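The following block was generated as part of the benchmark described in Methods. Ligand: NAP.
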Amino acid sequence: MADRQQIRVLVTGGTGQLGLSLKKTQPESFSVSYAAKATLNIEDSDTVETYVKNNKPNVIINAAAYTKVDLAEKEKDAAFAANEKAVANLAQAAKKHGAFLVHISTDFLFHGSFNRPIDENQMVQPIGIYAQSKAAGERAVAESGAPAAIVRTSWLYSEFNANFMKTMLRLGREKSELRVIADQHGSPTYAVDLARALWQLVSAPQANAGTPEIFHFSNYGVTTWYDFACAILELAAIETPVLPILTHEYPVPTPRPAYSALWPRKFSERFQWPVRHWRRALSEAISEHKILEG
Ligand SMILES: NC(=O)c1ccc[n+]([C@@H]2O[C@H](COP(=O)([O-])OP(=O)(O)OC[C@H]3O[C@@H](n4cnc5c(N)ncnc54)[C@H](OP(=O)(O)O)[C@@H]3O)[C@@H](O)[C@H]2O)c1
């Protein structure tokens, strides 16, 4: 990889939650373009090829994705176009022009019966269109032979765009009571923590080591949506009661994994990155959200 002073990075999905988190945490020594879909639609292979050829990024961070999990059941083509075809376009351009691709994937690939945090050696079992399209995207990266890292993450939230934390804060102020699922387990991940970790990854010389490798990244700790909601309201000093409900009491088109907490130790050790507990990260996110709200 080029000297750190000269590293040029392309972030796709630049106006998404992770894109904005990358922008917030970007080290000054990187030269970064944040491309919104309107300027760089990665589903168009010619556009991607031309962009990468002309701008010659050393690193491409693919923070773009089709992320509407339930709507994906009705929009299969759109989900696969963004999460598989577009990823193949990026991987091919990365391989051809010598860029290192960092592709983001998801804990929703794991619908197996797990009862402890999931490491990179576990088999994926994607259920539903969104998960299947993300699994196809991972395969597209692997089959391209591009130098790449696939980083799977989980339960992203932040002060940016729409996400679970912001929904709970809004509903906690609007409603007299909240009902939140208490039998799905995972690891909430502050998108800003993921962004900081990704900058560490692209700074590491060994990141450019060749064939695609998979990493799991989440904050440490396992919880449920119910406990996560309680922690959000508590930190924001909102006293609205939160009642636990079970998955079958809140039917949605796409089934969610019962347990999809990720185990980020490989990432932490490889990139010497101190992963913190989700509660500490949440505390920062709530403070940052208050600042943005004014
Ligand atoms: N959010 C979570 O809880 C979660 C959990 C696990 C993994 N992930 C993964 O983490 C990554 C980042 O998620 P996020 O929360 O930042 O999602 P997000 O806020 O929905 O951002 C995705 C961005 O991708 C853009 N995009 C969609 N199709 C595109 C295309 N064809 N070309 C260029 N840009 C396109 C979207 O633009 P428009 O808004 O204009 O469509 C949006 O700005 C994704 O890979 C997601 O699968 C997310």
